Amino acid sequence: xxxxxxxxxxxxxKDDYHSIRELCHAAKNLTNEAIYNVRQYYFTEGKFLxxxxxxxxxxxxxxxxxxxxxxxxxxxxxxxxxxxxxxxLLRLAKKGKYAxxxxxxxxxxxxxxxxxxxIGFVRLNGNKLILPFSNSFKKTHKPxxxxxxxxxxxxxxxxxxxxxx
Length: 165
Prior knowledge:
By secondary structure, this protein is mainly alpha-helical. It has helices at 14-45, 51-58, 62-66, 69-94, 135-140, and strands at residues 117-119, 124-125, 128-130, 145-147, 160-162.
């Protein structure tokens, strides 16, 4: 059985809040860069740009370098999944099992927006999660500690999502 626990974190300092906000904004920028690459490849080649090639294009991006590599790869995988869904719908539409007008390319996220941070490899220190930072982000920001709910203390945590409000 999978357990999902939601927790609204209210005890963050101003610096911690700004660090998380900056990471969520970088995640949104990376999402838009990944979407741009796949869309442009589709418009020019008429084919799907796979995760591996998109990763090779974006691994030197400033937004990729701001995020921890685990978080950045999770974002690229989410973009890859949304485009796989789009191309799956196109295949169904060509077979006549789905309407072409309902097949929509994934859209860009708002310019001033934020997106979810996905921590796929969770390392807990007791009842605290120390938010993983990239080496470049560590140089300018202090670590952010988030207390996890007591219900999760004896459980194996597979993924943590930080959803910006």
